[in-house]
Amino acid sequence: MLINKVSDQIKRSKYISRDLSWLRFNYRVLDQARDTNKSFFDRLKFLAITSSNLDEFFMIRVGSLYNYLDYGKERTDYSGLRELPFRKKLLDYAHRFVNDQYLTYNNELKPLFEKHGCDILKVSELTEIEQKKVDSYFKNTIYPLLTPMVYDNYHGFPLLMNQLLTFGVVTRTTEEQKAQDRVTFIQIPQNLARFYEINRKDRIIFVPIEDIIRWKIKKFFRNVEIVSVNLFRITRNGDFTLEESDDLEADFIQEIKSKLRTRKKGRVVRLEVERNPSQFMMKILKERWTIDNANVFTINSLIDLRALWQIINHRHFKDKGFKQPSAVQPLSLPSDGVDMFEYLKEHDVLLHHPYNSMEPVVSLLERAAEDPSVLGIKQTIYRLADQSRVTAALLKAAENGKHVSVLFEVKARFDEERNLREGERLEKAGCFVIYGISKYKTHTKMLMIIRKEGEKVTRYVHIGSGNYNEQTARLYTDVSLLTTNEVYAHDVSEFFNVITGHSRPNEYKYLMTSPKGMRHHLIELIRSEARNAKKGLKSGIVIKINSLEDKEVMDEFYKASKAGVPIKLIVRGICCLRPGREDLSENIYVKSIVGEYLEHSRLYYFHNNGEPKVYSGSADIMVRSFDRRIEALFLITNEELKKEVINILYYNLQDNQNSYIMREDGTYVKKRAGTNEEVVDIHKLFFNKACNEVPESELV
Fold this sequence. Notes:
Oligomer: single chain
Domain Polyphosphate kinase N-terminal: 15-120
Family: Belongs to the polyphosphate kinase 1 (PPK1) family.
Number of helices: 20
Number of strands: 27
Radius of gyration: 27 Å
Cofactor: Mg(2+)
EC number: 2.7.4.1
Largest sheet: 10 strands, mixed
Structural class: alpha/beta
Strand content: 15-25%
Distance between the termini: 45 Å
Domain Polyphosphate kinase middle: 130-311
């Protein structure tokens, strides 16, 4: 009865739960691992991604829920459920996902290992010679690094680290004729490879490190009875919110560093454990961490499927997966050999990554670092590549005496430590570095190069939806603009003054920004389409984003739909809006694209009675994007570039190979090409330059 009541409550709500929507997104990623048209190693890759995604989901989203539960704060989910019933619904759904995840691994992928030149074997399945090699590896490498930590009446409970594999070994001793059980914990250090590799003639064998330790576990318990050996892994709450501080003397960097330390000992929100664990140990763990069976995930296989990356990235298999085509020349940039400083004086350039390379941006920055005419460089940085060419160029610019100011976002989740480290390097080189803006996360992506050219100064601007990361630019789809247009330059200069100083410009001409004004601006654009529809004029909205969650904007979409505006939304991940509900959203169509590349670009199209307004930039339609982040969307004014972006949206809507259509109940169904329908795969199509030629595409 209670289950039906909860289900009815969810169905009645005009919004979809953010967290349940996210789990459905991870199902679409899991669908890639099930796709038999993909190579075996690509399927393994997507399975590993689902595992990484789920780790972050538990750390951040489930962690956030427990912030409410643990401190007695009220929370009502978009589904209409309060904290406790929602916790049950969410964790039940998570259990279902994990079950499907391991069915995919055990039944569909594991049987294919041997056929593809590899295998995961236990020590007992190795030859005698191979076992001797493993024995030597254990003695020389593993054994010295392991530290048994006993928990009993004389020893306190040890701090067990987040997401490390841990053995809980229950032992028994007899003291004064009384048997006593105790548990000893052995954590496997993260700097040890998950698999020991053995080369055979026909294939490569991967031996899990946990199986090696289990094989030799008695080395740690001499003259002691081992009752049971149990492998488990915990996930701790990694969600924290920086409070606003008006104390200008507070050391913001130290605050971040302290938050990073607390992540290591946050409350446990998930316990993954192998089958048939010791009930003695489980009772201790559940009581210690205040968890119950809903938090416990029994794994009938390899715990932590992120381990598969070691196989996927192995030198023998690196060329077995997806082969990315060479990038094509941007339509607005005739060749690689042009002088970008000269070319950009007369032309704007639109880049569509990864189909167009990020090289024009990086090489322009590198050239600016060396160019004696360049006076200064300003840039926002959210995520960087390893051995970043961007950092190297900024260091070189500072060494060459140029003014370099960089806003490093140290709250970029899980990249905090890297950004702090890179920021400190730039500071030492003489760069002016700002580490974020107190309570706001700087998510916008902007670069400005200031160059003296004769009697005048020209500002070269780059602004887009993607990070300044050369590695992910080959994996994420993004859109960016290079320009010297004075209006963009003025707006971006003003915006830099806002985020690095204390300035509040009245308005921008080509930018809409947050935390001031973006939600209101977007709502006005939606209302304008609704007004046109009511007048009988042609109207329409097409938006491509990562996530849709802001209630105020969703309510405006609902009103516009009732007014007759056709609305097409391409939302990769979380979508809290219900499409196609009678008397609410009958004119709203939602699809998600999940495939070889991570859809990361944000594009906003408003028909505007035949004179379209088209925006791109860093912001999704989320509360955090409007209220807790520094974001920018930029208006695309160049008519040819505007057509190009409309073309991108057009083919995104046509795609029938990577697309999932969202139903009214929040579920998704894979879109298939019809019998006589042309196959459209945007992850291949945009590498064909001919397909990038700009037709007069009709979106609405």
